[in-house]
Amino acid sequence: MLGISLRRPKTIAATIAAATLVTVLGSAAPHVYADGGGKPSPDRGHDSRPTIVLVHGAWAEGSSWSGEVSRLQARGFDVQVAPQPNRGPSIDSGYLKDFLSTIEGPIVLAAHSYGGFVVSDAATGNNNVKALVFVDAFAPDKGETLEELTAGSGSILEPALTDPTSVFKLVPFPGAPEGAADTYVLPKIFISGFANGLPRRQAEVLAVSQSALASNALGVPATEPAWKTLPVWAVIGTEDRVIPPARQEEMMERAGADITRIDAGHLGLISHPDEVTKVIVEAARTTA
């Protein structure tokens, strides 16, 4: 309609992604690279390396990956942070699938939390996706829902399955399916359950700057997952209270993941960006 092809050369897609990151991450994105240099020095074989696409979780947005973005850019990787509508797996995975279709060449997808549900669906059938990295994330099998994977896990979200208001503030939104509302994790639960391991002040800021997740997202079944046909890496926070480690271990062992365990809560991507970046780089180098 605008005369612009949806499938752009990789160089143009990278330029658009860089501009998007400046807008989305704002002051949260470091202005210098993690190694202290003014610009990355591409390694040998740079052109054959994958684009790293980072997918955030529910009640979050792209800046949660800012630590990994700066470190990956410092190593010369093309990095894109995928937008996430947080409307439910069907809509969100479809959105991500279209986003990925604009990227030429190999892709490594890294996902946090609910983002793991989305990438499991969206990567299926995309031959450019070469590996998946799950960071404190769901990895559902076909037919499983967020409700089923949360039930019986000991998650701080589990009480919401019987009484949503015990965990969430519910807010109506235009065009919502019948009975659905936007959910925001109550600040006291967010601080103690999501942001454990982060400084109190940082946790308080994150608790009131959430992005909503539509409540109907919890009951949408997964489609055939990409992890059945792709190599998988995982980072599991041993103090995660949202997706408890035992449940993550079950999902990641089922997916045949190469597992790294860190002493962190659910937001290990924020508190431990060095460790998370190392795993993403390992996936990228192994599959390049």
Can you characterise this structure?
The structure is a single chain. With about 290 residues, this protein is of the alpha/beta class. The chain folds into 2 domains: about 10-145 and about 220-285, Alpha/Beta hydrolase fold, catalytic domain (Rossmann fold, 3-Layer(aba) Sandwich), CATH 3.40.50; about 155-215, no CATH class. Helix content is about 35%, strand content about 15%. The chain is built from 10 helices and 9 strands. It has helices at about 10-25, 65-75, 90-100, 115-120, 145-150, 185-195, 200-205, 245-255, 270, 275-285, and strands at about 50-55, 80, 105-115, 130-135, 170, 180-185, 215, 230-235, 260. The strands form 2 sheets. Strands 2-1-3-4-8-9 form a 6-stranded parallel beta sheet, with helices on both faces. A 3-stranded antiparallel beta sheet has the order 5-6-7. α2 (about 65-75) packs across α10. The longest helix is centred in the first third of the chain and has 16 residues, at about 10-25. About 45% of the residues are buried. Mean pLDDT is about 85; it is low at about 1-45.
